Amino acid sequence: MKVDLFDFHLPEELIAQTPLADRTSSRLMVLDKKTGDIQHGIFKDLKNHLKAGDCLVLNDTRVLPARLFGEKTGTGAKIEVLLLKQLEGDAWETLVKPAKRVKEGTEITFGNGSLTAVCTGTSDHGGRILEFKYEGIFYEVLEQLGEMPLPPYIKEQLDDRERYQTVFARERGSAAAPTAGLHFTEQLLNEIKEMGVHVAFITLHVGLGTFRPVSVEDLNEHEMHAEFYQVTEGTARLLNEVREQGGRIISVGTTSTRTLETIASAHNGRFEEASGWTDIFIYPGYEFKAIDGMITNFHLPKSTLIMLVSALAGRGSVLNAYNKAVEERYRFFSFGDAMLIL
Fold first, then answer.
1. Which of 29, 82, 213, 267 has its CA 20 to 30 A from that of 149?
2. Tell me: the pLDDT tens digits for 299-315?
3. Peptide bond before 98: cis, by omega within 30 degrees of 0?
4. d(CA 148, CA 82)
5. Please, what is the end-to-end C-alpha distance for the chain in angstroms?
6. What count of other Cβ atoms lies within 10 Å of the Cβ of residue 267?
7. Against a cut of 0.70, is the pTM above it?
8. Which of 259, 251, 206, 266 is nearest to 230 (CA)?
9. Is 95 left (phi over 0), alpha (psi -120 to 50) or beta?
10. Taking the CB of residue 80, how many other CB atoms lie within 10 A of it?
11. Please, which residues have CB within 8 angstroms of residue 247's CB and are 6 or more apart in sequence?
């Protein structure tokens, strides 16, 4: 299967640059995965498509202010660092720009010198391993010096960094937001629970794969970067009960989807308490074992995310829906509108 099969024309002005004032006022396209039929509404309408006994599964990862701007010790050269994954202790896998200036042994200082880093090695795809030194608590230093790692297609400054967090973000560790969850407010979640719909949480820390384009023509040759996930015993038990009682499991975002499918694939369609690293790559031909539906944003052409959506709803239906979204001037990507696939 070729990457070009997932291309579509996207006018640049449809890439949302800022979040809406009201999280729930974004538009919602509803796509029937069996017929390809499309309905248009707003995100608050989500309640009209859920019923008692269903379960929404949300990713409670919290985005780190993971973009740091420093200087190379000795030369003063400007260096940008993006934290991707904590390895051991104070060692992190990072992306560094310009990478050619950061070789093994290079030291970088940040802010007033309250944080320094030494390059101790390289990782896949041009990454750098940095060992950090500081006084106090690393995450507190990061809160002072770091910036939100907004995707490269967002050019505007973010006034309120909490708008790149979900309202239920708890577990620190992501290099990017699970953006389908950005549409929810506490009020909407409470209204959904009052309907008898279950709400469950998993954790997947979004990593390097989010920033990597598909660079091969044949999908069989693409390798996903592994990301850390965790599902508790309580969440696993709830999901099994929902399934046994005939409720639908609706994942919020591709990250929740990949986590649930990883676990169900390893346990014959059942859910178990688990944590580890997943590099599951879902594209058309994949047989879903965990979810019945999904809420997701509108994704980049030729990305692994549009491939996952196409696996669930069919490539033809998804590309038709995306073309309709362009015609109807939907907002795309992280701060954009949402799609519900049922």
1. 29
2. 999 999 999 999 999 99
3. yes
4. 10
5. 25
6. 15
7. yes
8. 259
9. beta
10. 15
11. 53, 54, 55, 198
Q: Which of 170, 152, 140 is nearest to 65 (CA)?
A: 140
- According to DSSP, the β-strands at 198-204 and 227-231 are antiparallel
DSSP summary character for residue 126: G
Q: Are 122 and 129 in contact, with CB atoms under 8 Å apart?
A: yes
Q: Give the 3-state secondary structure percentages of the chain, helix then strand then coil, rounded to 5.
A: 30, 30, 40
**Matching residue, tokens 């944003």:** 297
| Count of all residues that appear for the chain in the document | 342
All structural domains of the chain: 3-63+160-341 (3.40.1780.10), 67-145 (2.40.10.240)
The pLDDT value recorded for residue 115 is 96
Question: For residue 320, is it left (φ>0), alpha (ψ between -120 and 50) or beta?
Answer: alpha
DSSP 8-state symbol, 86: E
- Taking each helix axis from N to C end, the angle separating 304-313 and 254-266, rounded to the nearest 10 degrees, works out to 60
Rg (alpha carbons) of the chain, rounded to whole number: 20
Give strand pairing partners of 341: 31, 294
Is the pLDDT confidence value at 214 over 70? yes
